[in-house]
Design goal:
mainly beta, Lipocalin, ten-stranded antiparallel beta barrel
């Protein structure tokens, strides 16, 4: 099955405009540096996100290939995903998230685009229950996932949520995990339980700022003590991954 890099699209213009805001290179380094300078009690993860358009045969909508990497020397992507943007039966924009069965054959595609030829819709594993729902606001996009308690982390079985704000210059995403205490077998619940993962109450989520004209080998990194605490949490949403797009990747871990 052929995978193509996409340079132009003749599809839903609103979805194209939304995904335009995600294509490129982003990092949380500015936020982490501010945490260090201010002596903040909570240190956000130092993470980069790279996204590029691809097109997979047999898969509807608009597709993005995503790599997330800890900002440390010689770090390899710790999360590789395929995002699918389309509308549901109500016309709402949703972002489905997929893991890749063959991700070892694709990792590094931003320095070797030939690797994208290894993408195949038949090798995608959907992160069920963790799709992101997007809305168009006056000057930004807002997204969320997990409010129904159906986005469950694979390792810790936490109920993950994510709230996102997206512009052309940055993505702000807050990922939180709950223990599910009080949720019935049928999924009904007055709440998602106790908060057990993510920043403390009142702390802003991860702020990914766009980096323009930044070559792969020139990407700045943290090292030594500055990188401490940069290892991504296992809550991962865009994205994260509760969407998987951010350091915490709910369904991802």
């Amino acid at each position: 099955m052929q995978t193509k890099l996409v340079t132009s699209l003749k599809v839903d213009s609103e979805i194209v405009q939304l995904t335009d805001c995600l294509v490129g290179l982003f990092s949380t380094l500015d936020q982490v540096n501010q945490d260090l300078i201010s002596g903040a009690a909570y240190l956000h993860a130092a993470v980069s996100i790279r996204a590029t358009r691809v097109s997979l045969e047999g898969l509807d909508g608009v597709h993005l290939y995503i790599e997330q990497t800890v900002c440390m020397p010689d770090a390899k992507p710790y999360r590789v995903r395929l995002y699918q943007f389309l509308r549901d039966e109500n016309g709402t924009i949703i972002n489905r998230i997929y893991r890749l069965k063959n991700e070892e054959n694709v990792v590094g595609a931003f320095s070797d685009s030939q690797r994208l030829e290894n993408l195949d819709a038949a090798l995608l594993l959907e992160e069920c229950g963790c799709h992101m729902t997007w809305a168009i606001e006056d000057d930004h996009y807002s997204g969320y996932t997990g409010r129904d308690g159906k986005c469950i982390s694979r390792t810790y079985k936490y109920r993950m949520t994510a709230e996102a704000t997206l512009t052309r210059e940055r993505l702000i995403q807050l990922d939180v995990g709950y223990d599910g205490v009080g949720i019935e077998d049928d999924g009904s619940a007055a709440s998602l339980g106790n908060r057990v993962m993510g920043p403390p109450e009142g702390v802003v989520g991860h702020i990914f700022k766009r980096l323009s004209a930044c070559a792969f080998n020139d990407f700045p990194t943290l090292s030594g003590d500055s990188a401490e605490g940069a290892e991504p949490s296992s809550s991962g949403s865009i994205v994260a991954g509760a969407s998987d797009f951010s350091p915490p990747s709910p369904a991802g871990e």
